[in-house]
Amino acid sequence: MTTLIILTILMIFGAIVALESKDILSGIISLGIIGFALTINFLLLKAPDLAIVQIIIETLTLIILIAAVLKTTREETVEKFGTQKVLLWAIGIIFIIVFVYSSVRIFNHLPEFGEQSLRMAKVYIDQGLTLTGAGNLVAAVILDFRGYDTLGEATVLFTSVVGVMAVLRKVGRKRS
Amino acid sequence: MRGMTLIVKQITNLMVPSILLLGIYVVLHGHLTPGGGFAGGVLIAGCFTLLILAYGSENIKSEAKKMQASLTESIGIFLFWFITIIGLLNGTYFFYNIIAKTNPGEPFKLFSAGIIPLCNIAIGIEVGAALFSIFITLAILKVGERL
């Protein structure tokens, strides 16, 4: 539990550095702190499936972002004016107060950390192997009990790739 | 995108077969060990991304590779949808695990759990090809070029 808290504080510091750094490349690299600390958090919470996906997606995203920065510019171009900055800080502080207040009220109603409160979760854990025959309970849930979700997710990925390839294509566009 | 130095190319030659093998293993054993179609597919896509980064995208026929990746992705999603309607074709309902009910197999063996490993393979093909086609589309796009 202590390790989790330390890693979460490290993630918050990484996010602040990524926001405040003047060089965009160092900002992106400190963004990597968040992803890799989250990977260790997933491993500590005994979720290796999520940890595998998180570490590979994080690496791929960092590569693509760094390639984009190296192709364009490393310096921050948008300058904010004085009054605009004050307004943004005020909005941010108000949002933080509202967020913390509502989270504290909601967290009082949640069950204890690590205890299951849903009856369906107990059924999945007890009878998952006998009902589906899959040794990995996560695979049993995402491809049998909750199969429609995975089907929709795969279709969403397909649609997004179709969109990317339609926007960034070279052929088929008339010169104006 | 230009290629990198000789050191990077040699390390890539050593690493790529192991990464590809790990990806295929994670996809095929998705119903037994942590992982599954999504994680294995991303691993396979990362392997091809590493090759493009090390050797550069100028020496390959990028447009043809992009079309191949797009076609592979379409085949993957089509396979997934086909597996889901196997149940309908056999007279039961949508997404029914008909193979596990008729021929269950031994638990914790590779050939078990019916359509779950088949779905994992289809998702692996789809996700790997999808992420790789996004990457190659961004890689062959040149900044400042008139579209």
- Helices and strands of chain A: which structural class? mainly alpha
Helix count of chain A equals: 7
- Spatial separation of the terminal alpha carbons of chain B: 18 Å
Please tally the β strands of chain A and state the result: 0
> Could you give a short account of the major beta sheet of chain B?
none
State the helicity of chain A in percent bands.
over 70%
- The percent range for helix content of chain B is 55-70%
Molecular structure report:
Chain A has helices spanning 2-20, 24-44, 48-71, 82-107, 119-132, 137-145, 147-167. Chain A has seven helices and no strands. The model of chain A has no long low-confidence stretch (mean pLDDT 84). By secondary structure, chain A is mostly helical. Chain B has 147 residues and is mostly helical. Chain B has one domain. In chain B, helix 2 (37-55) packs parallel to helix 6. The radius of gyration of chain B is 19 Å and the shape is elongated. The chains are: A mainly alpha (176), B mainly alpha (147). At the A-B interface, helix 3, helix 6 and helix 7 of A face helix 2, helix 3 and helix 6 of B.
Layout: helices, strands, pairs:
The complex is a heterodimer of chains A (176) and B (147).
Chain A: H1 2-20, H2 24-44, H3 48-71, H4 82-107, H5 119-132, H6 137-145, H7 147-167
Chain B: H1 6-28, H2 37-55, H3 62-84, H4 86-89, H5 98-102, H6 115-139
